[in-house]
UniProtKB/TrEMBL annotation:
Protein name as it appears in the record: Acetoin utilization protein AcuC
Entry keyword annotation includes Mitochondrion: no
Organism annotation: Actinokineospora auranticolor
Region (Disordered): 345-367
Coiled coil: none
Residue ranges crossing the lipid bilayer per the database entry: none
BP GO annotations: acetoin catabolic process; epigenetic regulation of gene expression
Amino acid sequence: MGARVGAGVVWDSALLGYDMGDDHPFNPLRLELTMRLARGLGVLDGVEVVAPVSAEDTDLERVHRANYVAAVREAPSAGWDLGYGLGTADNPVFDRMHAAAALVVGGTLTAARRIASGEVDRAVNIAGGLHHAMADRAAGFCVYNDCAVAISWLLDNGFERVAYIDVDVHHGDGVQAAFYDDPRVLTVSLHQHPATLWPGTGFVTELGGRQAQGTSVNIPLAPRTCDAEWLRAFHATVPSLLGAFRPQVLVTQCGVDTHIEDPLADLALSVDGQREIYRVLRDLADRYAGGKWLVTGGGGYELLRVVPRSWTHLLATVLDRDLPVDTAVPVDWLTDVRRMAPRADLPTTMGDDRDTAFEPWGGGREQPVDTVIRDVRSAVFPLHGLDPDDPRD
């Protein structure tokens, strides 16, 4: 396999320090197992893996308030009355929390800087994707919002239009909030319907601020939405919006908690479907953003069976080293994981043997997902000069 020239991976084992505890769902083991699997399959052979440079306070304060950054730094020694969303079940305080979270942000900034400098066209930080953190509080396992910091930095370093696409099962609320009034940033989030899942935001009617109407796009999907329905909704909305917005770089949050086996949510995607999503995102970056694609990880809580396979496909897609879904999982990797979890039912191939074919919107039989497609197109498309009723738009 030959790596694409101009693609890079940001990684260092120090990123495993973002660790909220063995019993917390956001376990860094998923990152470690992903990198082991990717290496075992040769995905990273010959690839320069770049270590992240920790974000400075001035970087963090692009989107976070200075008093919040100070609170995060002081939290491990501050006792229990913390505020700022810190010290909760979702966001427990842990040793060196500020340093660990700043390194995650630094990883995504490192990727952004390499793209802006022209060193690479694509870069991926699987430890990133902490899309829930707000200006003044932690939320949803996220201390600092690396996606928003990187987008802010890109806007100050040669990019006038940035498109952000979030495919995590949870609404990309922190990134949307950071740029809700900024017409230079198009935020698109496909997520489980907010009436059925935390954080309870991400309705179609959230369209952006007065000066940025139509640059906040939300596609809420019903529980049990499968690969074909998800892809039908995506293709019926996102490519047309990117074509109208004309981004100069595509930033994506690629959480894999959309999988049917994920314990914290209720969509029904497969690893095969997630692999197809990555391939579509790559194509859209090439078609609409001059090939510039900044990729982050995100959620995903089936640590052994799902996340390592899906994010290995993500790494492979970024590097143009696509793996067939029937590729065998390496025996050495399976042996190592069985030592950790002797009773685990582990997958033996890189797919779930699911068909990802879908019927495009605009023709053929009506499907349940078409309700949200029509709602999104009706609310957003006219704001971009697009015809919501024309399948060609």
